[in-house]
Amino acid sequence: MTTSDEPMPGLSAAGAAPELTEAGFAVEIADAPLLHTGLNLADLAHVVALHEAGVLPPDAASSLASLLLDVHAQPIEDFPYDPDYGESYNCRERAFTERIGRTAGWLHAGRPRREAVRVALRLRLRRDLMSLVGDAAGFVTALSGRAHEHAETVFADHTYLQQAQPSTFGHYLLASAQPVLRDAERLQSALAWINASPCGAGCVNGSMLVPHRDRLAALLGFSSVIEHTRDAMWQTDGLLNMVSTAASLVVTLDKLAEDLEIYASQEFDFVDLAAPYTRSSVLMPQKRNPYALSMVRGQAGVVIGQLTGMFAVMKSPSARSDNLIFAYGEVPRALTAVGRSTRLMRGVIDTLHVNTARMAQVLQQSFAQATDVAEHVMMTCGLDYRSAYLVVGEAVRHASASGKVGVDIDGAALDRAASVVLGEPLGLAGTDLRPATDPARLVAARDVPGGAAPHLVRDMAARAARRADALAAAAGTEMERFDAAESALIEAARRLAGGEVVSPAVE
């Protein structure tokens, strides 16, 4: 029997240098909890497949299955991962050998350590991926509900933090729902990549001991088998795609968070964060800081850094371990971090207080309707748009200097401005300009597809909510499939542990 004092494969008889343990094995061991469940499942499936192929003797199969079931049932923190004994795979081999001796050595038949960890990563990430899809769907559901609620809440939309045109707060909110939905759909489609099985790839050219790669895939609930065995071991493009899409999602959340932080300031006073999503200043009694928004903004920066780091690491030559060693921790952490931020923003949106009176007041005191007035002049007077633009610009300057606002601009004011700009009036004195100056009427007139008219906003909100519901349902279905596959694998392992012959025909 191998003892704990004997070197494990991959470690020299002299043991690892302490610097290597600290900078290498400890880094991998820090990620071991992320992959522990997946490693257990990968090992169980490998034992079942080896037994079915006639490679693994019945006694060894029973002993290994019993051991792995025990390990799978115990808390992760109780497993003896220790960088002094190498990375996670070596630690597992040491622990298994201490319990069942040389029988543990059968676990290596036809499979390098990298395959076990690659499988574990995919098993972990498929759940992380579907969880993030569900979180994104939940955020869109909340956002759509608030957009429907505020489909008639007029406010001055902004570009470059300057008042642009009359719109509604509901229309503004839906602009964040659309990119999140697109990212969620991209994440959903990424499942086809991550839920493909690398099992049975051997070192690089396939394993003769595990000829039925589709059986291993079925045991683990994978939906397909990666065709090329070398590619199965070393592909990274899908990982980059997932982190990139997650980064895109959190950047959208960041944009909304930054806007809301500005809108929540006293200078704007458009919204207030619910108290549970803020943090008080320890020095200034009057201040409550938008802590939730700061965390989302900061997390966006971290995930962008993780994505950049992944691209930098994965540019390595083919068939190298360094690129994926770091992915084992960074990719799950990136996806779960974005999930946390997404759930946090859902809470912010669900509880956000919208100061509708303040929004209406600011819009009423603005010149946000200037573009509409210019278009009215163009259509009514037959001017080219540039000339109408200059006339309205002159009228706005005069009104602002006189302490007036956009709704105060009338036909006489435009005639005066036209006399300055064009040398003659337009004959607009006494005409009714309210269709071009009243914010509510202007918003209602935005009846083009995707526009801010309240009924269109409600329709768009409903469609976004339906898309979110479909995504959430699909993610939930996939989770149920993962659960079913894992339960079936555990049951097969239990039968094997009990000495029963397990074959692909047994379900």
Please write out the topology.
Blueprint: H1 18-52, H2 58-73, H3 88-100, H4 113-149, E1 154-159, E2 162-168, H5 169-189, H6 191-194, E3 196-197, H7 213-219, E4 224-225, H8 229-234, H9 237-263, E5 271-272, E6 279-280, E7 288-289, H10 291-313, H11 322-351, E8 353-354, H12 356-364, H13 370-381, H14 385-401, H15 411-422, H16 434-437, H17 439-445, H18 454-497
Parallel strand pairs: 3-4
Antiparallel strand pairs: 1-2, 5-8, 6-7
Question: Could you give a short description of this structure?
Answer:
The protein is 64% helix and 5% strand. It has 18 helices and 8 strands.
Q: Which sequence of SSEs, written as H and E, runs from N to C? A: HHHHEEHHEHEHHEEEHHEHHHHHHH
CATH fold category name of the domain at 370-437: Ribonucleotide Reductase Protein R1, domain 1
Helix proportion: 55-70%
Radius of gyration: 31 Å
Write up this protein.
The protein has 507 residues and is mostly helical. It has a domain at 370-437: Ribonucleotide Reductase Protein R1, domain 1 (Orthogonal Bundle). It is 64% helix and 5% strand. The chain is built from 18 helices and eight strands. The chain has helices at 18-52, 58-73, 88-100, 113-149, 169-189, 191-194, 213-219, 229-234, 237-263, 291-313, 322-351, 356-364, 370-381, 385-401, 411-422, 434-437, 439-445, 454-497, and strands at 154-159, 162-168, 196-197, 224-225, 271-272, 279-280, 288-289, 353-354. A two-stranded antiparallel ribbon has the order 1-2. It has a two-stranded parallel ribbon with strand order 3-4. Helix 9 (237-263) packs parallel to helix 11. The two termini are 35 Å apart. The model is unreliable at 1-5 (pLDDT under 50).
